[in-house]
Write a structure and sequence with these properties.
The chain is mainly α. The chain has a single domain, classed as Double Clp-N motif (Orthogonal Bundle). It is built from ten helices and two strands. The protein has a two-stranded parallel sheet with strand order 1-2. It is globular, with a radius of gyration of 17 Å. The relative contact order is 0.18.
């Protein structure tokens, strides 16, 4: 599948690895959030054009902050947090207690003591799902190659924190399709 990726799409994947391995991401697996962070760093690509056209250019830091907050909640979406609140479970209180005992970022996997992990960075199940969905999105749009715009579309087409954060900032699958393909490209890839 990677042979179908454009240079921009490969750069997004490489950038996601940088977030995991560097100081920006923590953890040992590339997750969908890392793909979104790498997309936010892009300039001069179809994906970055689409984000700018939807007004996200000047609000990228707000997206990064929303992703950081979701990581502190152990990757729970706001909808999941609200559902737990409906059951009487206060996620903010749980995060505060865990962080009080184990340090800030304990639920996010951002611990600085990573001696227990000596393996290689890999792709998490959800990130693999995003890449597979990006292929389906490209096929649905009748595009021969998978570009960074298809990864962005795939992030908005699935469930999870990146889709929720982007939607909260006015970036949805439908709005991206309109920007990238005009009104005629409404095919949904599941």
């Amino acid at each position: 599948m990677f042979e179908r990726f454009t240079k921009d799409a490969r750069d997004v994947v490489k950038g996601a690895y940088v977030y995991v391995e560097g100081s920006g991401g923590g953890g040992r697996c590339v997750e969908p959030e890392h793909l979104l962070l790498a997309l936010l760093d892009r300039e001069g690509s179809r994906g970055s054009f689409a984000l700018a056209a939807l007004g996200l250019g000047e609000r990228r830091e707000s997206v990064r902050e929303a992703l950081r907050e979701a990581r502190r909640r152990a990757g729970l979406t706001q909808a999941e947090t609200d559902a737990l609140a409906g059951l009487g479970i206060d996620v903010a209180e749980i995060v505060a207690r865990v962080e009080e005992t184990h340090g800030v970022g304990a639920l996010a996997g951002d611990r600085t003591d990573k001696r227990w992990w000596s393996g290689r960075t890999s792709f998490g199940r959800e990130a693999k799902g995003v890449l597979e969905r990006s292929l389906r999105v490209a096929l649905a749009q009748r595009d021969r190659h998978i570009g960074d715009e298809h990864i962005l579309l795939a992030l908005t087409a699935g469930p999870g924190v990146p889709a929720e954060v982007l939607a909260d900032h006015g970036v949805t699958y439908a709005s991206l399709v309109r920007v990238l393909y005009g009104s005629g490209g409404e095919a949904q890839a599941g």
